[in-house]
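Minutes, project huddle
Topic: does the predicted pose make sense with sulfoacetic acid bound?
PN asked that the exact inputs be recorded in the minutes so nobody has to dig through chat later. Recorded below.
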Amino acid sequence: MVQNDKAAAWVEEMAALCQPDQVVWCDGSDEEKERFYELSLKTGEFQRLDQEKLPGCYYHRSAQNDVARTEHLTFICTPTEREAGPTNNWMAPDAAYEKLRALFNGCMKGRTMYVIPFIMGPPGSPFCEVGIQLTDSLYVVQNMRMMTRMGNVALEQLRTNGKFTECLHSNGELDIDRRYICHFPQDNRIWSFGSGYGGNALLGKKCLSLRIASYLGRKEQWMAEHMLILGVEDPQGNTSYIAAAFPSACGKTNLAMLIPPDSMPGYKVYTVGDDIAWLRVGPDGRLWAINPEAGFFGVLPGTSMKTNPNAMLTMKKNTIFTNVVKADDNTVWWEGMGVDPPAHGTDWKGDEWTPERGEKGAHPNSRFTAPAAQCPVMSSHWEDPQGVPISAIFFGGRRSHLTPLIYETLDWNHGTFVGATMGSETTAAATSASGVLRRDPMAMLPFCGYNMADYFHHWLEMGKRIPHPPKIFNVNWFKKDDEGNYLWPGFGDNLRALEWALKRCRDEVEGTETPIGRLPRAQELNLSGLDLPGDTVEQLLTVDPDAWLEEVEGIEEFFQKFGDDLPQEFRDQAENLKRRLKAQEKIPVS
Ligand code: SAT
Ligand code: MN
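Predicted holo structure (tokens), as shared on screen:
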């Protein structure tokens, strides 16, 4: 094994604190994977599924109070509260260390401490970051094995990088009153106690790849974003790459694995990533992106051969299913899977379950974990060390009325403003009332590891450093008519909007200027095979100045949160938008 004195000393220090019965370094081998699954059957952390129907697949049930990220227990621990900013929970580092040290003290007595060296990003990539996670959960180990490149490969990479993010995790008692997810950006350290759930416990994911990485990115002039990455190959064989940020419940994984409609022959879509993008300026002056992850951690309910066949095919083998129905024949089922439910099984809580009982069998946030390499449409470039060049960035949300299907922003700064002000209406699935607009800048609200106003400045600064920046677009797949019906079919047909955007990038279409940005002319959108009535298209491409003036008021109210730290550029953008809106009546689209 590759030795690293700093790593060894830190592991020893943390072991002295947590007092496990033993410390086991993970090597990342297949042999180890099998051995750990065997062990986990005994500890009860996993159950083995039918190995003929679902080879290499395992089932896990979480504690009932531990099914999602707990944002109110997630803290950014910077020396001053200002550094964490108005949108994060803040704790002073000394206080956080003291509080968590008491929780970690002796917490692994009778347990094993697993040491997981891991890398985010392809090995040898200039993008890649090393982390070492300590955990007492085999569920976490087996998930990290898929979501990251882990084991000896990471210790090799540590020789090059020299530094690593210290990630300490314990399930503790899975007690919500003794649960904290603390980030110490200045110390390059994460301490997470009391939860085994993905985003709280797989510390390479949101904690390192977004919160810590966003902090590092600002220091080192790169960007860590909550974005999917995909490649679109056109019928001529040219592939362009896009990155897109959407708040949750807007179909990010579906878009990342999109299947082109039959009426767009010759188009292919390739997945590079479904959740996180790291972006750097390349030697050619363009923005290049990697997916730092190596697996998918996706929502199951609603995922079917109809809504996302590529996700379904990805999880045919070597997959962990968490909190779904386990049928008596050792297969799995969830609501919206598109197949008949089993006659009898156990639900996500472990209770006996039959479809007749009328209760949901899978938790709404039940998940699959699967290796990205198993996705049938994974891009052949998804592990390129330099990443892929980004032609266009998309922001979007769920807006039933205001926002048109797609518009192009005026330039990088305007695009940054549009990303910073994006919002989404809550769905019935969320706990709070349906249809409430929630602003979620760049879909990073829960994931920015420092003051979000500084993050806005960083975006604007990056714009100055990218000689050939991507164009920035806003999309909305969720516009409704007055009766509440969706105007746009969504799913594979979203490619029609992407096609228009990529044509704009190549200057092949002109669009039409409106106060909010450039919209497609109806005839520029490929609508063949869709059969959309003309007035539907018109509604999809309408800009209502009065409604937008109201929107600007909402934006300005949102901006108040950031006080004087808000970039002056954003105030100017809001003023300019108002001026353009007032100067123009409703824009007829030809
Ligand atoms: O657990 S994750 O944070 O990765 C997924 C989510 O809750 O958005
Ligand atoms: Mn996400």
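Observations noted during the meeting:
- The mean pLDDT is 96.
- The domain at 5-45+67-220 is CATH 3.40.449.10 (Phosphoenolpyruvate Carboxykinase; domain 1).
No decisions taken; revisit at the next huddle.
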